[in-house]
Amino acid sequence: MNRRVDETHLTPPLLEMRQVTQTYALSRKSLIGARPTLTVLDKVSFDVRPGEAVGLVGESGSGKTTLTRILTGMEKPKQGHVFYNGADIWAGDAERWRNFRRSVQVVMQSPRSSLDPRMRIGLSLLEPLRSLRIEGDHVARVHEVLDQVGMSRQALERYPHEFSGGQLQRIAIARALMPAPKVLIADEPVSALDVSIQAQVLNLLKDLISELGLSLVFIAHDLSVVAYTTSRVSVMSAGKIVEVGKPLDLFTRPQAEATRNLVGAILTVEAGLAGNALA
Ligand SMILES: Nc1ncnc2c1ncn2[C@@H]1O[C@H](COP(=O)(O)OP(=O)(O)OP(=O)(O)O)[C@@H](O)[C@H]1O
Ligand SMILES: [Mg+2]
């Protein structure tokens, strides 16, 4: 086990952003002067190696989803670079772009808004193969992926509203797996689900990562959820990565104020549950 961890650290990153700054233009307050900008990511570097599961935590508005959009190529950074397999995704040809889009897939927070309500599940699952122009036996691939997420084939003829949130998130994960990606980016994948089914979806993600040898970027507010699924966690605050560490070290010896706040929030909840809350 240790050996594997050591080897992982010697391997170059599979997906990496280096010194990325992202700004958004805000509306002008007056007619005179420059248009104000909001810096959402400030020289952020972040990476994941092959087969590695890394986490990203931070308070609401700290820039996590913006980082997801940059890592998946949905947005181009104003400054800095994104590399997949060592190659700049914004500086290649169409073939490099297609390979990148196929290899890095995302699971969003709300499966209800990420699946088209008017489309049968079967068609939704096929959609990534069509848009990425991936050839092969599509039906066999759909069946294989349904097995991997523990859903039956009967799901294919049904519509999203016929499923629970947990089942829909399994389907959204299945759709992300369809193009056989190398990296899965999960942005708060369980925070919209009932607490009782969160663990099932987390276990599914963990199993998939180890069985398929995928890399995982797991994003959440909650340090304990990330600690359960990943081996290295970055803490983000106001558009900057303020601390990186192993989950246990972050819990026991948090250095940055943002990390201490996240740990404190968990301890407060636990104290509350145990009836020891101060208030
Ligand atoms: N397209 C945009 N234009 C202007 N501001 C934006 C845009 N997208 C995001 N922002 C701002 O950037 C900041 C970071 O947003 P982001 O969604 O990345 O945070 P987050 O960490 O994912 O938050 P949450 O935990 O609530 O999901 C916020 O202040 C947000 O209002
Ligand atoms: Mg977000």
Automatic annotation (TrEMBL):
<keyword id="KW-0067">ATP-binding</keyword>
<dbReference type="GO" id="GO:0005524">
    <property type="term" value="F:ATP binding"/>
</dbReference>
<dbReference type="InterPro" id="IPR027417">
    <property type="entry name" value="P-loop_NTPase"/>
</dbReference>
<keyword id="KW-0547">Nucleotide-binding</keyword>
<dbReference type="Pfam" id="PF00005">
    <property type="entry name" value="ABC_tran"/>
</dbReference>
<dbReference type="InterPro" id="IPR003593">
    <property type="entry name" value="AAA+_ATPase"/>
</dbReference>
<dbReference type="InterPro" id="IPR050319">
    <property type="entry name" value="ABC_transp_ATP-bind"/>
</dbReference>
<comment type="similarity">
    <text>Belongs to the ABC transporter superfamily.</text>
</comment>
<keyword id="KW-0813">Transport</keyword>
<dbReference type="GO" id="GO:0016887">
    <property type="term" value="F:ATP hydrolysis activity"/>
</dbReference>
<feature type="domain" description="ABC transporter">
    <location>
        <begin position="26"/>
        <end position="263"/>
    </location>
</feature>
<dbReference type="InterPro" id="IPR003439">
    <property type="entry name" value="ABC_transporter-like_ATP-bd"/>
</dbReference>
<dbReference type="InterPro" id="IPR017871">
    <property type="entry name" value="ABC_transporter-like_CS"/>
</dbReference>
<dbReference type="GO" id="GO:0055085">
    <property type="term" value="P:transmembrane transport"/>
</dbReference>
<protein>
    <submittedName>
        <fullName>ATP-binding cassette domain-containing protein</fullName>
    </submittedName>
</protein>
